[in-house]
Design a protein that fits this description.
The structure holds two protein chains of two kinds. Chain A is mostly beta strands. Helix content of chain A is 8%, strand content 33%. Chain A contains one helix and eight strands, in the order αββββββββ. In chain A, the strands form two sheets. Chain A has a five-stranded mixed β-barrel. In chain A, strands 2-1-3 form a three-stranded antiparallel beta sheet. Chain A is globular, with a radius of gyration of 16 Å. By secondary structure, chain B is of the alpha/beta class. Chain B has one domain: Thiolase/Chalcone synthase (Peroxisomal Thiolase, Chain A, domain 1, 3-Layer(aba) Sandwich), CATH 3.40.47. In chain B, the strands form two sheets. Chain B has a nine-stranded mixed beta sheet with strand order 3-2-4-7-1-8-11-10-9, with helices on both faces. A two-stranded antiparallel sheet of chain B has the order 5-6. The radius of gyration of chain B is 19 Å and the shape is globular. The chains are: A mainly beta, B alpha/beta. At the A-B interface, β4, β5 and β6 of A face α5, α6 and β5 of B. Bound molecules: zinc ion (ZN). Zinc ion binds next to loops of chain A. The site of zinc ion has 7 residues of chain A, from loops.
Chain lengths: 141, 388
């Protein structure tokens, strides 16, 4: 939980909140079954094969942008964030979906292409300060 | 197993009816379906009703009994929800019920009310069809999700915004003579290309509109149709459904829709037909790229080749395989929970010969409908054939 006034509402899902905490601490992980299927918590079984033998596996430090879109028409939760880059990034044991940021958004959303290398972190929505998965260019600024 | 006949179809005009309740919309569609069917509503044994966001749009849950009242039937009534495939699954269960001999007459369809909400609330409402924790909270909108698929498609197979603009232009042209369509105006490829972006590479004319409307079908057994001397020449000969991982990012391939592959395979096997037998299709083009993905999942085009179909004229009204002669979701409109039923209503009329666009498919005997939910985590495919 954050320590400011924004924590009046309970986290909507404890496992998800703890997973975000881990990602923010640089310890992002996936749950992986013996056959190598990765998924994100909360999970009791592997969604691909049903195995209950799930263990935590660290995400790759750097991921690869598989697809992206510059979103101009947002949902209300992202009203002040648009335009922004929505992206799906491969981090090894699983993919993550989040918002790609360049650091300085004053000139609009950052340039991006499939195949770009990015790192995963946790940021805040400009609209309401809620936490979300963000990606930043890997290897320098 | 018995043959399932489409005895009657009914639609409301699709469009903006913010002053009308959902119950009134469904009542109109059902009334029209009963008139078309010439079936006594007292013979209806079940109501299968699709709706997606009625709890948000009308503050109304538990809609099935309400819609049974609106249609004037008293029988077991159930609401089905599978996002934009809600009516598709409702119809599919009606087809299975009749085919299994569990009922002779089932009323199926759906309704959605959307324009009474501000656009941003509709955007939010549609986003709940995505995984809330890992997609919607992470910035994925409904157009944004299909935009992610479009970028992945272009990356994997090639294709351009112009190819997609041809899909939009084709479907708008098809909607012009359709009295039920929301947008009966032509849109040129250049107009589509010049429209403002929604979620790149998708722009305004790549997206379906926000629509109110309802659909209703009276489905009967072949025996009932014969006993009552019904004029019901079109049969639903195949039904199939598929489910995939909820989140787009969890799919093996970001530019393919395996749930629709599975639904199509099952529906073709059920009907005993092959993709090559299909003469006409109504597919779920909530976004232009979705039509491309649908054509490939239906086996009508190889992966990577569906993108050129509209531009090359194969799927236009005068082409070898007309697709979305109704105007599609794109121009006819997309009242989410009604769409799966409206596709079958339109295809039935196309095959019967009483659709304004029937002239383009006067020799058609086999048609297919494709209805998708979310980013195709749910898909329903039906095969319709001219039985007599
Ligand atoms: Zn597994």
């Amino acid at each position: 939980m954050s320590d400011d006034g924004a924590d009046a509402a309970p986290p909507p899902d404890r496992a998800h909140a703890e997973w975000l905490d881990a990602l923010a601490a640089g310890e992002g992980f996936a749950l992986v079954c013996p056959r190598g299927h990765g998924s994100l918590p909360p999970r009791r079984v592997c969604p691909e094969c049903g195995s209950s033998d799930l263990s935590r596996e660290a995400l790759d430090e750097t991921g690869t942008v598989e697809t992206y879109s510059v979103v101009h028409v947002p949902s209300p939760r992202f009203a002040d964030d648009a335009p922004y880059v929505s992206a799906v990034v491969d981090f090894g044991p699983t993919r993550l979906t989040g918002v790609l940021r360049g650091g300085d958004e004053t000139d609009g959303p950052p340039a991006v292409d499939t195949g770009d290398a990015v790192a995963a972190d946790v940021g805040e929505r400009a609209t309401d300060g809620e936490r979300l998965v963000v990606f930043r260019p890997a290897g320098g600024d | 197993m018995t043959d399932v006949r489409v005895a009657g179809v009914g639609l409301t005009p699709f469009g903006s009816h913010p002053e009308r309740t959902g119950r009134d919309l469904f009542a109109e569609a059902a009334l029209r379906a009963f008139e078309d069917a010439a079936v006594d509503r007292a013979d209806v044994e079940e109501l299968n009703y699709g709706n997606f966001m009625g709890a948000l749009a009308e503050h109304q849950g538990h809609q099935a009994p309400l819609m049974a009242e609106a249609a004037g039937v008293r029988c077991p009534a159930t609401r089905y929800e599978s996002a934009c495939a809600s009516a598709g699954v409702a119809v599919r269960e009606a087809v299975r019920t009749v085919a299994a001999g569990d009922a002779d007459v089932v009323l199926a369809g759906g309704m959605e009310r959307m324009t009474n909400l501000p656009t941003d609330e509709v955007t939010e409402g549609l986003a709940i069809a995505a995984d809330d924790l890992f997609e919607a909270r992470a910035g994925v909108t409904f157009p944004g999700a299909y935009a992610l698929m479009a970028t992945a498609y272009f990356d994997a197979y090639g294709g351009t915004r112009a190819d997609l603009a041809h899909v939009a232009s084709k479907n708008h042209a098809n909607a012009v003579p359709n009295e039920y369509a929301q947008y009966r105006k032509e849109v040129s490829v250049d107009e589509a290309l010049d429209a403002p972006p929604v979620a790149e590479p998708l722009h305004l004319y790549d997206a379906c509109p926000i629509t109110d409307g309802a659909s209703a079908l009276v489905l009967v057994s072949e025996e009932y149709a014969a006993e009552h001397d019904l004029d019901a020449p079109v049969a639903v000969t195949g039904t199939g459904q598929g489910t995939d991982r909820m989140a787009l990012g969890d799919r093996e391939h970001l530019a393919r829709t395996p749930a629709a592959d599975a639904a199509a395979d099952a529906a073709y096997a059920d009907a005993g037909v092959e993709p090559g037998d299909v003469d006409v299709a109504e597919v779920h083009d909530c976004f232009t790229i979705a039509e491309v993905l649908a054509l490939e999942s239906l086996g009508l085009f190889e992966p990577g080749e569906g993108i050129a179909a509209a531009r090359e004229g194969v799927t236009t009204a005068d082409g070898d395989l007309p697709v979305n002669l109704s105007g599609g979701l794109k121009a006819k409109g997309h009242p989410v929970g009604a769409t799966g039923g409206s596709q079958i209503a339109e295809l039935t009329r196309l095959l019967r010969g009483d659709h304004p666009n029937s002239g383009h498919v006067s020799d058609a005997e086999v048609g297919v409908t494709h209805n998708a939910g979310g980013t195709v985590a749910s898909a329903v495919v039906h095969v319709l054939e001219v039985a007599e």
